[in-house]
């Protein structure tokens, strides 16, 4: 029971972190009015946040290996609360941009720190499923931003909405400080003190492992599409280009969370049962995302509601699917370097997200707004990432298998084994 309480408190902190991360995406049009920002400038808010998030992953991972999850989660919650409070009070564009960067710093340390708790508190057979649950339950923060946050924003105002978000960060910091421990009593979870040179050597060693790079490309190709949709361009796409109301757009984001929960349970079970088929699951998720976007973007005008729902359901699988990348990090790296490896993997999806997000902002600006045609061109930039990520997965899985001395069983071998049982 103690393990579930510790983990649950960490997940609560992550969910509030997701609220902070996605709050600007659902208030993008309000931010455009408040700060007199066009599409390109508006995207720079979130792009800077993601740049900070991605650039902080390796330092955060190294620091996590040194000080443990508890201190990192508390620090992350307080940093994000500070950024949200600044955003609540300011009407200055430079201050607002800086505030989102601060949110990115706190966000960067939270997820990998919560994820680090899982192998410390749960057995090996439970780790894949609990890791998936960590990611998908944390996405309830997206529901918090899509429903109650938006209600407060529209009914009470900008300052009240972001002030309440800031207060939630302080509350979870107190809860984590009171409840969370890095590991069961007596377990060693942090590494020894090392020099800067030793740290750099460790980073190079972790990245040199094909399994780490396999996790990086797996995360890159599965996570970025739903991240961009939830973080920045989903609501403008649904309301301005597809003609949906803000309430309907918020409901569709809730559908995304429910879809991720169901998919995460399935992906976690399949990952634990068929570890040699994880890369095929990753490639299947990438392909399904590409096909669904192709269908929606090929339409000459707005898509029917049922098709938009199907699109969101499919791309939402990418969230739990990206957790396979962290499973690769755990599989191919020792526990003392797990934070560093997870940080490297986490860079993949967010690096792709920031590049595509920035490209989309520039394209929308060039086309003069949020039209169907503008979004058709903008969303098409995703295909570059899928090509790069799929190629990386295919190459790195071969090297990882060769290095570990294993190979997947053929279908004939599987059938022969089943007949022999």
Automatic annotation (TrEMBL):
CDD domains: MFS (cd06174). It is found in: Cell membrane. Its main location: membrane. Keywords: Cell membrane, Membrane, Transmembrane, Transmembrane helix. This is MFS transporter. It comes from Rhodococcoides kroppenstedtii. Pfam families: MFS_1. InterPro entries: MFS (IPR011701), MFS_dom (IPR020846), MFS_Efflux_Transporters (IPR050189), MFS_trans_sf (IPR036259). It is a multi-pass membrane protein. The chain crosses the membrane at residues 41-64, 71-89, 95-118, 130-153, 159-180, 214-235, 247-268, 280-299, 305-326, 347-367, 379-397.
């Amino acid at each position: 029971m103690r393990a579930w309480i510790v983990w649950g408190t960490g997940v609560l902190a992550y969910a509030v972190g997701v609220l902070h991360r996605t709050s600007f995406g659902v208030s993008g049009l309000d931010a455009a009015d408040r700060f007199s920002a066009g599409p390109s400038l508006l995207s720079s808010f979130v792009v800077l946040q993601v740049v900070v998030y991605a650039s902080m992953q390796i330092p955060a991972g190294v620091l996590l290996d040194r000080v443990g999850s508890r201190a990192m989660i508390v620090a992350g919650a307080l940093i994000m609360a500070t950024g949200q409070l600044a955003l609540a009070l300011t009407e200055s564009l430079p201050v607002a941009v800086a505030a989102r960067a601060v949110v990115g710093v706190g966000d960067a340390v939270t997820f990998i720190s919560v994820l680090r708790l899982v192998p410390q508190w749960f057995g090996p057979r439970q780790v894949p499923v609990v890791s998936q649950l960590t990611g998908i339950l944390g996405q309830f923060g997206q529901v918090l931003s899509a429903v109650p946050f938006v209600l407060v924003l529209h009914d009470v105002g900008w300052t009240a909405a972001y002030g309440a978000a800031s207060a939630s960060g302080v509350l979870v910091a107190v809860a984590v400080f009171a409840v969370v421990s890095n590991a069961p009593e007596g377990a060693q979870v942090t590494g020894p003190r090392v020099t800067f040179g030793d740290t750099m050597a460790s980073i190079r060693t972790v990245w040199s492992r094909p399994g780490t790079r396999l996790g990086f490309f797996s995360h890159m190709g599965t996570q970025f599409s739903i991240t961009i949709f939830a973080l920045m361009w989903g609501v403008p796409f649904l309301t301005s280009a597809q003609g949906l109301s803000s309430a309907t757009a918020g409901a569709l984001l809730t559908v995304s969370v429910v879809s991720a929960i169901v998919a995460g349970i399935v992906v976690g079970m399949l990952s634990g049962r068929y570890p040699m088929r994880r890369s095929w699951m990753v490639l299947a998720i990438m392909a399904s995302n590409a096909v669904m976007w192709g269908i929606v973007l090929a339409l000459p005008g707005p898509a029917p509601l049922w098709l938009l729902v199907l699109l969101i359901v499919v791309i939402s699988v990418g969230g739990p699917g990206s957790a396979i990348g962290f499973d690769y990090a755990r599989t191919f790296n020792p526990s003392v370097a797990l934070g560093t490896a997870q940080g490297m993997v986490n860079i993949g999806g967010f690096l792709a997200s920031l590049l595509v997000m920035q490209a989309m902002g520039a394209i929308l600006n060039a086309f003069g707004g949020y039209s169907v045609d503008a979004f058709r061109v903008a969303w098409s930039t995703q295909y570059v990432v899928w090509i790069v990520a799929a190629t990386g997965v295919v190459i790195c899985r071969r090297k990882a298998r060769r290095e570990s001395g294993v190979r997947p069983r053929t279908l004939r071998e599987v059938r022969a084994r089943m007949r022999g049982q």
